């Protein structure tokens, strides 16, 4: 099971519109580039499942090409990746396979080739929130999560090769966290995939290749928990992480009581321990500062300079709401200023997302408006400070981690309840924490939201994260605030946070495929939606 950190839940910072279909796809292609060892001259992508059904509207094709070119998830040039590939002399072929059944809805096969006929074939899966897993390399099943530095060795399956690999790493003080051998047949081709506890220097590859039965070797850097700067691993790193880790809401409450801390403090300590275990500097406050900066820009730019989205379905809604509230009389202001401002910021963030601007996935891009909508509105209307907003984000991350760990935050797996519902639960908990509520009230607020939004389907018109996603973000921000107020008042829940997460997961997996981000049901099948798509 993947060990989720701060940047997995509050992040990635990325170009929109979809964390699983854009950022996750980019990371898969980036790993393919690293495994290939250079930029390929020809690359073919075959997309399956939800990737195939909605990938064009989500910019999945652009993201895959961007990853092959070595771009990062937050690079604004992702939207121009096809032009960049043409300028670089990279030939790209895209196939959309909606017929073949695959184990995961966000699956892509990548074939890279250089000018000499050398090839790499790889299958990757985007598991939600921008995270990716590699499932197959050159026809051999593997499992590369990106959680640790991975050393991928292509070899002949003969005696002595594994000993050579282990010896090379041991000589350089590199500890192996996990090791798996994947082979076609005895004495056939094989891949050894090792995950290490520390960075692996480039010269290790050359020493591995000294063995005549090693065909190739590549080092794949991890998707780091911290800021990427290497730090010494303390001797008690595992014990420290075990002290602060938790697997359920019940365990989180027990942890907070035992240590005398808030959820934000507990999650901060867990993040510091996770980074220490992985040998990287945490850089928590610097990251949170950037998160708040990006959130602020994404939530305000469309108010001043409205732009149409890539799909053309949204653009200007936040400015219209703002203008209507500014000029409205008392009887025309149907919501209070706090909820109105939260809705305005949420609408604006989804406009930024829809035009492939830079946003923060919280926990996904499709739900990126809820948390900033609530937090920035609380800042403006209730006077919470920058430092207090940091604590709110850490509280949100503390709950979001549990949802991602024990259920899913992917619309393709669990519907919009898994994305917008999770974001609203996180925002509700953050609001309670900012108001001074105890950890149990934060969890109660999250449970309130999940019960209120249970069964919310994911049905993007034309496969675009625009309609109905934008308005769902805005209304979910209000649901978060109401749920937070109810919990803060001390109203008890029959259903616990952990039970609400489990039920949400069960309901999500029971939704038919048409209602899980395929654009084949729900609002996406309404006559007006079909008419729009027919005209594209």
UniProtKB/TrEMBL annotation:
<dbReference type="Pfam" id="PF03315">
    <property type="entry name" value="SDH_beta"/>
</dbReference>
<keyword id="KW-0456">Lyase</keyword>
<dbReference type="GO" id="GO:0003941">
    <property type="term" value="F:L-serine ammonia-lyase activity"/>
</dbReference>
<dbReference type="InterPro" id="IPR002912">
    <property type="entry name" value="ACT_dom"/>
</dbReference>
<keyword id="KW-0411">Iron-sulfur</keyword>
<dbReference type="Pfam" id="PF03313">
    <property type="entry name" value="SDH_alpha"/>
</dbReference>
<comment type="pathway">
    <text>Carbohydrate biosynthesis; gluconeogenesis.</text>
</comment>
<keyword id="KW-0479">Metal-binding</keyword>
<dbReference type="InterPro" id="IPR045865">
    <property type="entry name" value="ACT-like_dom_sf"/>
</dbReference>
<dbReference type="InterPro" id="IPR029009">
    <property type="entry name" value="ASB_dom_sf"/>
</dbReference>
<dbReference type="InterPro" id="IPR051318">
    <property type="entry name" value="Fe-S_L-Ser"/>
</dbReference>
<dbReference type="InterPro" id="IPR005130">
    <property type="entry name" value="Ser_deHydtase-like_asu"/>
</dbReference>
<dbReference type="Pfam" id="PF01842">
    <property type="entry name" value="ACT"/>
</dbReference>
<dbReference type="InterPro" id="IPR004642">
    <property type="entry name" value="Ser_deHydtase_asu"/>
</dbReference>
<keyword id="KW-0312">Gluconeogenesis</keyword>
<feature type="domain" description="ACT">
    <location>
        <begin position="150"/>
        <end position="222"/>
    </location>
</feature>
<keyword id="KW-0408">Iron</keyword>
<protein>
    <recommendedName>
        <fullName>L-serine dehydratase</fullName>
        <ecNumber>4.3.1.17</ecNumber>
    </recommendedName>
</protein>
<comment type="similarity">
    <text>Belongs to the iron-sulfur dependent L-serine dehydratase family.</text>
</comment>
<keyword id="KW-0004">4Fe-4S</keyword>
<dbReference type="InterPro" id="IPR005131">
    <property type="entry name" value="Ser_deHydtase_bsu"/>
</dbReference>
<dbReference type="InterPro" id="IPR004643">
    <property type="entry name" value="Fe-S_L-Ser_bsu"/>
</dbReference>
């Amino acid at each position: 099971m993947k060990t989720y950190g701060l940047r997995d839940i509050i992040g990635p910072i990325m170009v929109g519109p979809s964390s699983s279909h854009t950022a996750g796809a980019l990371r898969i292609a980036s790993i393919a580039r690293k495994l290939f060892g250079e930029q390929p001259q020809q690359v073919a992508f075959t997309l399956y499942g939800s990737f195939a059904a909605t990938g064009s509207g989500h910019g999945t094709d652009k993201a895959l090409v961007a990853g092959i070119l070595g771009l990062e998830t937050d690079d604004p040039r992702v939207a121009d990746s096809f032009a960049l590939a043409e300028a670089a002399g990279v030939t790209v072929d895209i196939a959309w396979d909606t017929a073949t059944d695959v184990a995961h809805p966000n699956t892509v096969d990548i074939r890279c080739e250089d000018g000499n006929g050398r090839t790499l074939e790889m299958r990757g899966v985007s598991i939600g929130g921008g995270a990716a897993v590699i499932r197959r390399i050159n026809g051999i099943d593997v499992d590369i999560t990106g959680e640790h530095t991975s050393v991928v060795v292509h070899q002949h399956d003969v005696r002595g090769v594994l000993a050579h690999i282990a010896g090379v790493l041991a000589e350089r003080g590199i500890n192996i966290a996990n090791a798996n051998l994947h082979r076609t047949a005895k004495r056939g081709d094989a891949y050894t995939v090792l995950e290490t506890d520390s960075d692996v220097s480039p010269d290790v590859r050359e020493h591995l290749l000294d063995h005549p039965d090693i065909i190739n070797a590549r080092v794949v850097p991890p998707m780091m928990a911290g800021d990427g700067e290497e730090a010494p691993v303390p001797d008690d790193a595992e014990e420290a992480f075990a002290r602060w880790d938790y697997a359920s809401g019940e365990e989180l409450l027990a942890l907070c009581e035992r240590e005398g801390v808030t959820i934000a403090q507990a999650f901060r300590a867990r993040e510091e321990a996770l980074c220490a275990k992985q040998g990287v500097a945490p850089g928590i406050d610097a990251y949170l500062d950037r998160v708040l900066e990006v959130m602020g820009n994404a939530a305000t730019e469309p108010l001043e300079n409205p732009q149409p989205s890539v799909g053309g379905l949204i653009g200007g809604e936040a400015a219209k709401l703002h203008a209507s509230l500014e000029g409205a009389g008392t009887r025309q202001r149907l919501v209070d200023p706090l909820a109105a401002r939260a809705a305005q910021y949420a609408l604006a963030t989804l406009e930024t997302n829809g035009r492939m601007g830079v946003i923060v996935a919280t926990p996904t891009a499709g739900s990126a408006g809820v948390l900033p909508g609530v937090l920035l509105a609380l800042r403006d209307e209730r006077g919470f400070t920058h430092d207090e907003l940091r604590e709110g984000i850490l509280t949100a991350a503390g709950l979001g981690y549990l949802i991602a760990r024990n259920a899913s935050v992917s619309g393709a797996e669990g519907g919009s309840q898994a994305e917008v519902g999770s974001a609203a639960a996180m925002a509700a908990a953050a609001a309670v924490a900012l108001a001074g509520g105890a950890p149990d009230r934060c969890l109660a607020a999250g449970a309130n939201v999940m019960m209120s939004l249970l069964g919310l389907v994911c049905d993007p018109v034309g496969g675009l994260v625009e309609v109905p996603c934008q308005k769902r973000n805005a209304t979910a921000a209000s649901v978060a605030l109401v749920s937070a107020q109810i919990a803060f008042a001390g109203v008890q829940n029959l259903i616990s946070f952990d039970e609400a997460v489990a039920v949400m997961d069960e309901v999500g997996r029971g939704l038919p495929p048409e209602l899980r981000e395929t654009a084949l049901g729900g609002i996406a099948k309404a006559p007006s939606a079909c008419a729009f798509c027919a005209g594209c």
